[in-house]
Design a protein that fits this description.
single chain, alpha/beta, Aminopeptidase, Alpha-Beta Plaits, nine-stranded mixed beta sheet, five-stranded antiparallel beta sheet, 12 helices, about 35% helix, binds zinc ion
């Protein structure tokens, strides 16, 4: 694109420049790593707060270190439309994950402010301090606190230096006793909308800039153990073996095939340990993990059951013992149907086709169904869809169109209050 064409974009160039500026605020330059309650969290939050003020918002840091900007509405009693995402990152991160969902609504509010427009409802833009959970091993700390599901026991969790979350909050100037003030349930939030890069290749492969998220996937994790019989790799005939690894391998392929054959289901075996792990011994034990996700809980639960049945059949056929132990479950967060329709209309209003897709990754928005209706706008991730990686790419045109669609949605909500 030519320089003059880039200048014709209303929002994109400034969002890209700001994402670059925030990417320089890191704990381990030149890599981008910014974790919760660090000096870099403070520094990035202050930059964001300054942009919020410039856009006509009042700003405060809440008790958990979330930055909250508010653009007052024309009607003081009208419920609030909240939007935002996270300013923390994984280690060696990309620069748009989370940040786009903060920078795009700030650009929307700045545009309203410039035009002298007050919507009936207030808009709050939140930069959540922790979504990724890198420092304390709990994800979505900021948004869970707003949804009233922050477990006070988390305050005693420690980081790798032995500093507790409680102490880190105090050191940051935040308030571990202020949780009740952060909880927004029953406090007039009409909707939560998050814009986010897709972090996958679906929109890219469809040749589309924007998508409407249907639901944020739920997940089950299962620990599987397979016990066979060790033996000499040279002496035990092939038809008399009870090889735990060969059985596990057949199970892994069955899991892959099952998920391939069931749309809406994704399954991954990411860990595999083999004992005794010697080159000349038939494996006695194999342990592996299963991570299975779907936007529809019933699909996921049926998938878990089907995998259990298939793994048991393979174990029986091969005369090995199977342990199949689900140990983690997260329910899906469906996006609000009405907000999905309004978001689809806002995308159409930009002259773009609309695609609906589930989110396989977790996001701040998934905490919000406890508070208010929730929706998510996905924007295309370039470079094959890579994310949680420095090669994460967002194009200036896509950033621009996503922000225009978000602004259109915010203005539409004003008409349908
Ligand atoms: Zn994110």
């Amino acid at each position: 694109m030519s320089a003059s064409a880039a200048q014709a974009l209303r929002f994109g160039p400034q969002i890209m420049a700001r994402a670059d500026e925030l990417a320089a605020i890191t704990e381990e330059a030149p890599r981008l790593t910014r974790t919760y309650l660090t000096a870099q969290h403070r520094q990035a939050g202050e930059r964001i707060a300054a942009w919020m003020r410039e856009a006509g918002m009042s700003v405060h840091w809440d008790a958990l270190g979330n930055v909250v900007g508010r653009y007052d509405g024309a009607r003081p009693d009208a419920p609030v439309v909240m939007t935002g995402s996270h300013l923390d990152t994984v280690r060696d991160a990309g620069r748009y994950d989370g940040l786009f969902g903060i920078l795009s609504p700030i650009a929307c509010v700045a545009d309203l402010h410039r035009r002298g427009i007050r919507l009936p409802h207030a808009i709050e833009v939140v930069a959540f301090g922790d979504e990724e959970g890198v420092r304390f091993g709990v994800t979505l700390i900021g948004s869970k606190a707003m949804a009233g599901v922050f477990d006070p026991a988390w305050l005693d969790r420690t980081d790798s230096q032995g500093i507790s979350l409680r102490q880190a909050l105090l050191d940051f100037g935040a308030d571990p006793n202020g949780l009740a003030g952060v909880d927004r349930r029953g406090r007039g939030i009409a909707a939560f909308i998050e814009s986010h890069i897709e972090q996958g290749p679906v929109l890219l492969q469809a040749g589309l800039a924007l998508g409407v998220v249907t639901s944020i996937a739920g997940a089950s994790r299962i620990r599987c153990t397979v016990t066979g019989l060790a033996g000499h790799a040279g002496t035990v005939p092939m038809n008399q073996r009870r090889d735990a690894l060969a059985a596990a391998a057949e199970m892994v392929l069955a899991i892959e095939q099952h998920c391939q054959n069931h749309p809406g289901l994704v399954g991954t075996v990411g860990q595999l340990n083999v004992l005794p792990g010697a080159v000349n011994v038939i494996p006695q034990h194999a342990a592996f993990s299963i991570d299975i996700r779907s936007g529809v809980d019933a699909t996921r639960l049926a998938g878990v059951e089907a995998l259990r049945v298939q793994c048991e059949a393979i174990a029986a056929k091969r005369s090995v013992q199977l342990g199949f132990e689900p140990y983690f479950e997260l329910t899906a967060a469906p996006c609000d149907e009405r907000l999905q329709r309004q978001l689809a209309d806002a995308i159409s209003a930009q002259g773009l086709p609309v695609m609906h897709l589930p989110s396989g990754a977790g996001h701040d928005a998934m905490a919000f169904p406890a508070v208010c209706p929730m929706a998510m706008l996905f924007v295309r991730c370039g470079n094959g869809g890579i994310s949680h990686h420095p090669d994460e790419i967002l194009s200036v045109e896509d950033a621009d169109q996503a922000t225009a669609a978000l602004l259109c949605l915010l203005e539409t909500l004003a008409l349908t209050d």
